[in-house]
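Here is the promised in-class demo. Please do not try to memorize the tokens; focus on the logic of going from shape to residues.
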């Protein structure tokens, strides 16, 4: 994970590139930029218990594939999350009309107490999409607004918790299971690093980066190379889709042997929508939402 100052510099360049592509509305890209900058600032200030005070599975359970802490119990900074949620809600009110309308509905629900943010935060921790489905119906102009805001507000402290828990796990040792070794969630992106092409997955929930076998489906663990394919799009040099013909799922991968730059996975995911279009045309599916909850 990049230091905040370096990430800020890279973010500016990536956001400019996103705008020139024209795939997404400028207002949405501006919102993402403002949120991400605030997240980078907040990550180092998140209050998370020290790793040695957290109850985790033992070494044997971990070696057999158990995550250190179940996702539904993953530590995060509640006070910081509430503060960031209200900041990001205000930003959404000033975005495009669709987001502004959805933000107004959410704001009214907080006022009349029909929306409980503690329930919303736990729904994100538990991966409970049924909770957010109700709010999607209540905000038809932008149905993913609430999960986006909740996820964005929780992200800094979840990342900080992952950094802390990473001291109790060797994330550079190849992890052969189809989920994050820290929280048990599915990966959202992968990287090939160094000249040897070591493969790292990025968790879709806590954003931990962990070493995995290169020739293996990250979801169903298929190892038969005849069933593993990759596709590229000329608009996305250095990025490609890794697809599995057994489970019909895919993940996007950045190849740093081709690209002489560092990664911001959350922005890379947003900036590579062309690959998602290619994947859907090939009837492939992605088991995780984007890094922004939509």
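The designed amino acids, position by position:
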């Amino acid at each position: 994970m990049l230091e905040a100052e370096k990430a800020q510099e890279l973010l500016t360049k990536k956001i400019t590139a996103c705008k020139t592509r024209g795939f997404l509305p400028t207002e949405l890209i501006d919102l993402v930029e403002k949120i991400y900058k605030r997240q980078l600032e907040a990550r180092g200030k998140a209050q998370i218990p020290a790793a040695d005070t957290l109850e985790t599975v033992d070494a044997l359970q971990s070696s057999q594939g158990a995550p250190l802490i179940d996702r539904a119990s993953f530590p995060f900074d509640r006070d910081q999350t509430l503060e960031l949620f209200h900041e990001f809600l205000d930003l959404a009110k000033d975005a495009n009309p669709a987001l502004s309308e959805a933000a107004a509905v959410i704001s009214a629900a907080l006022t009349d107490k029909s929306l409980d943010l503690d329930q919303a935060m736990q729904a994100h921790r538990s991966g409970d999409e049924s909770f957010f489905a109700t709010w999607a119906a209540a905000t038809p102009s932008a149905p993913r607004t609430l999960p986006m805001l909740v996820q964005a507000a929780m992200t800094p402290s979840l990342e900080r918790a992952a950094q802390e828990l990473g001291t109790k796990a060797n994330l550079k040792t190849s992890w052969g299971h189809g989920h994050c070794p820290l929280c048990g969630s599915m990966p959202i992106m992968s990287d090939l690093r160094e000249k040897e092409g070591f493969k790292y997955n990025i968790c879709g929930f806590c954003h931990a980066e962990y070493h995995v076998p290169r020739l293996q489906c990250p979801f169903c663990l298929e190892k038969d190379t005849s069933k593993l394919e990759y596709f590229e799009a000329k608009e996305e040099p250095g990025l490609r889709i890794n697809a599995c013909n057994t489970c019909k799922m895919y993940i996007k991968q950045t190849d740093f042997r081709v690209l002489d730059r560092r990664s911001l996975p959350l922005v890379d995911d947003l900036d590579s929508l062309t690959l998602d279009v290619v994947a859907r045309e090939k009837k492939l599916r992605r088991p995780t939402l984007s890094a922004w909850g939509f």
